[in-house]
Amino acid sequence: MELIKINGNTYYIDNPTNVGLYIYKNKYCLMIDTGLNNNVASKIDQILSNNGIKPKYIVNTHNHPDHSGGNAYFREHHPGTIFYTSEDEKLFIENDYMFHSYIYGAYPNKELHKRNAKSKGSYIDNILDWGVNKINDEKFEIISLKGHSQGQIGICTPDKVCFLGDSIFSEDIISKYSFPFLFDIEEQLKTIECIGNLEYDYYILGHGSKAYSNGEMKDLAIKNKLNIEKHLTDIKELLNQPLTKEELFGEICILNNMKISYRSFHLCLSSMSAFLAYLYDKDTISYEIENGKLYYFLV
């Protein structure tokens, strides 16, 4: 974990979940995301301290625990820090149990809770609007990047660096975890198109090992779209015979040689619901209920 300069006053701390920084002249900074939990947040804080930087503003791209799990730490250790996110993400960040509730379908059990047991929900001070927002007299562009979550945002600094959260996945992530965790397929496809049309000098992903150039990001957008289209094709082919959601997911696991944990099972099954909703709303599939089981099939 180290502080890496991208351009001008814009940096990031490399981490399993990257943390963005815009450093003001007075050495206060705007942070983008806070890491998984208090443990990770304390390590990020140490890097800031070692470089004479103090957090003053924090923007959460979205609510998932690996992006907002350190919020409570920074509020406690840096009183006066101001937190920002989108309106849709605010509810989930302030009530951290809700993320696992929606992937589980009820109040989550201890197995799902334990990964972020040391993090707590954190109050959001301000809602960011789409377009240009001024934070401490500097202008940042906020972009709607829905799809991976309900109200995910990207933030672009005055140095033409754009932080994209989990709106798009790196080649390594697609290779290792081909079946993407998504909330809304329709919105995700719109987001990928939006990213492909952006014109910034550098892009940072939530999970990636480098700063991407504009050309590289356009190529990556195409790869993300093709990956979604591949899974839509596979699902339609599998639904030539009626399958339950879990049976369908089992077939997808076999096709992609996926090895999953208890938690990732629920993440992926939630994503399968998003794919099925997309196809159902397009009148591509239908359903029937028989003997207490819900089957989907191609129309």
From TrEMBL:
Residues 16-207 form the Metallo-beta-lactamase domain. The lineage of its organism: Bacteria, Bacillati, Bacillota, Clostridia, Eubacteriales. Keywords: Hydrolase. It holds the Pfam family Lactamase_B. This is Hydroxyacylglutathione hydrolase. The gene is gloB_1. One of its GO terms (molecular function) is hydroxyacylglutathione hydrolase activity. Its EC number is 3.1.2.6. It comes from Oxobacter pfennigii.
